[in-house]
Design a protein that fits this description.
The two termini are 30 Å apart. The protein is built from 19 helices and 19 strands. Among the domains are: 124 residues, no CATH class; 181 residues, Rossmann fold (3-Layer(aba) Sandwich). Strand 6, helix 8 and strand 7 form a beta-alpha-beta unit. Helix 10 packs parallel to helix 12. The protein is α/β, with parallel strands linked by helices. It has a six-stranded mixed beta sheet. The chain has a six-stranded parallel beta sheet with strand order 15-14-16-13-17-18, with helices on both faces. A four-stranded parallel beta sheet has the order 4-5-6-7.
Length: 629
């Protein structure tokens, strides 16, 4: 296939390009052995993979929240992160571990309130939080390991307040803090001497799983400063746990990413454009005379991509390494001209997003979750959705023999419950991150024939995505939009009630959607057993694909909150289907790798799937549509 480069404006500087080619064409430093005449060598990964992992896999997302990360992004990270165990989550502000008996939302909001007043998290609150366990920071061998050596691979109106203007004393401080524009990231590259901030950490060594096998490139490894022997830094998407470490002073090497991600990096982080290399989608780009890379849509958030690296060997063979970044796997990926097998051969290494590699996370396809939310919204807007506290009370009274008769059209509406009355009176609020959940609110707005209102900061992120269809739905007038966007971590009834009062009487009730996969962790024995089930059983289509949404418990009559099983990471079944559809020599987990127990469990599952494929062969798992299994 012809290898292409993007236009001159998107290339690295001439000196950077020349240094890359020189790197591959001549003798590299003693620890690096990559050239046009590279000979096939024994793959050092295969000698003792578990030892390598234990020595260098320790970049866990439960460290102190750095100052470059905005408070809003801290909440995003909490919503995205996997609990340290099946029952623990960690507050990204004070590092406290919260078990199932603790109210994680209340805890983090208390920390945020304290942070706004004092600049420090609420440590006193942390010490008395029910179910809270103080996390201990461990120094691992990985932080003392040197970088790996490289060898050839062998295998609105003015009178109406806006989101950013709601700063009356009666408002919750945490909401003000999360909704104001915190500006650009601060300059705190990890290879520079840190300031006196207690949240700063000394420079750490780049862990094993961020290096691409046998070549001097890393993925999502910006928090380690300048990495020795690294010739290029790849950014899979613009989420803070992946780009952290980037700042206006970045000068360590070229940053390769998609066009949309490049927009965010330049606009939000003020990184020097000379270092930002925009790569084309769906075609090969020559990093050197022996290494190509291709970008494939990762179905995660705008700008997110898979990186497919091809390393040309002296013997004429080609090593293929796929890094998924964060992704929501679908059949379209396996059918992609650059990935489809057998035309493209075996993947030597798969760096896999293992966020939900647990049988308990078997949520529905995105399309199914979106349709369920839109159907519910239509019923609420038209007054058909009768499920309310009043309705539940009637059911309870009827069981007691009480006279619970009431005309159906008055159920709920007499008390102003969501889902009743004229459509214009119901406000729909969708929880989002800085980027992400776009499909959710886009489809909701289209179904309701509504505009979308968001804060200026959120609007800036949306318009940077260069999506004309999405842009056409936006408005800066909150009264002209029945769909409003809200920080995910702030989808709580007290804050929603306060927000709703701001627009009363135009809106008299609110229905909020919290689209995330973490809320839908199932614990039934049958579902949990999927972790130990054969691959064919895991990938089998569910007998019932219907999605039933139930409101969360609230105490405010005018507010209802629904958790939506909408995730932008692959479900357990989707991970199985993706792995089951491709012939892969080695799989390296990239998420939840901070503990030996977690690594052992994940490797057990992946090894079993791999062994089953060896016995039964590999073929594309059947699918109802290219968009999902």
């Amino acid at each position: 296939m012809k290898r292409k480069r993007p236009g001159n404006d998107d290339r690295p500087t001439e000196s950077n390009t020349r240094s890359l080619d020189h790197y591959f064409a001549n003798s590299a430093p003693s620890t690096v052995k990559v050239s046009d005449t590279a000979t096939t060598a024994t793959d050092s990964f295969d000698n003792d993979l578990e030892r390598a992992i234990q020595q260098s896999l320790q970049e866990i997302n439960t460290t102190h929240i750095e100052t470059a990360e905005t408070t809003s992004e801290a909440v995003e990270r909490l919503d995205r992160q996997e609990p340290l165990s099946n029952s623990l989550k960690q507050c990204p502000i004070c590092d406290v571990l919260l078990d199932q008996t603790a109210d994680a939302n209340s805890h983090i909001n208390s920390c945020l309130d304290s942070f706004e007043r004092t600049g420090c998290p609420n440590k006193e609150n942390a010490s008395i939080e029910a179910g809270a366990i103080k996390a201990t920071t461990k120094t691992t061998q990985a932080e003392n390991e040197s970088e790996p050596s490289f060898s050839s691979s062998s295998s609105t109106t003015n009178s109406v307040p806006k989101l950013e203007a709601l700063h009356e004393p009666k408002r919750a401080p945490a909401l003000d803090l999360l909704q104001r524009d915190t500006g650009k990231g601060k300059d705190i590259d990890s290879d520079q001497k840190p300031d006196s901030s207690p949240s700063m950490r000394p420079k750490r060594k780049c862990p094993f799983y961020k290096w691409i096998q046998g070549i001097p490139f890393v993925v999502d490894a910006f928090s380690f400063g300048k990495i020795e022997n690294c010739q290029g830094y790849f950014l899979s998407h613009y989420h803070s746990d992946h780009y952290y470490g980037l700042s206006p002073s970045w000068s360590h090497g070229p940053i390769y990413c998609s066009k949309i991600t490049a927009n965010f990096v330049r606009q939000e982080l003020n990184v020097d454009s000379n270092y930002v290399v925009t790569l084309p989608m769906d075609q090969e780009y020559a990093l050197s005379s022996t290494v190509n890379v291709s970008l494939i849509d990762a179905n995660h958030c705008p700008g997110s991509v898979l990186f497919l690296f091809k390393v040309y060997r002296a013997d004429g063979t080609v090593a293929r390494h796929l890094h998924t970044g964060d992704f929501r796997a679908n059949p379209r990926m396996c059918l992609h001209p650059l990935l489809r097998q057998p035309e493209n051969g075996v993947l030597d290494t798969l760096y896999l997003d293992t966020t939900y590699l647990n049988g308990q996370y078997s949520f529905p396809a995105q399309e199914e979750a979106i349709n369920a939310a839109c159907d519910l919204a239509e019923r609420c807007a038209s007054g058909e959705q009768k499920e309310s506290k009043r309705g539940l009370l009637q059911g309870w009274l009827s069981k007691l023999g009480a006279d619970a008769s009431m005309p159906s059209d008055t159920v709920g509406s007499s008390m102003g419950f969501p889902g009743t009355g004229p459509a214009s009176k119901v406000l729909f609020i969708v929880g989002t991150y800085s980027i992400g959940k776009e499909r959710m609110f886009y489809n909701l707005a289209k179904r309701l024939n509504s505009k979308v209102y968001a804060s200026p900061r959120k609007l800036r992120f949306i318009t940077s995505q260069e999506n004309k269809e999405l842009d056409s739905l936006l408005t800066d007038d909150p009264l002209k939009a029945q769909v409003h966007l809200f920080p995910m971590g702030q989808i709580q009834e007290e804050r929603l009630s306060l927000y709703l009062k701001t627009y009363h009487p135009h809106f008299t009730s609110a229905v909020a959607f919290r689209p995330t996969g973490w809320t839908f962790k199932k614990s039934s024995p049958a579902i949990a057993a999927l972790s130990d089930a054969p691959l064919a059983q895991v990938t089998a289509p569910p007998a019932d694909r219907s999605v039933v949404l139930k409101p969360m418990k609230t105490t405010i009559d005018t507010i209802q909150i629904y958790g939506i099983p909408y995730s932008e990471h692959s479900s357990f079944r989707e991970l199985a289907s993706f792995v089951g559809s491709l012939e892969i020599r080695r799989i390296i987990p990239t998420v939840n790798v901070g503990s030996e127990d977690s690594r052992r469990k994940m490797n057990t599952i992946l090894d079993r799937w791999q062994n089953e494929k060896k016995k039964k062969g590999t073929k594309l798992v059947p699918y109802p549509t290219e968009e999902h299994w």
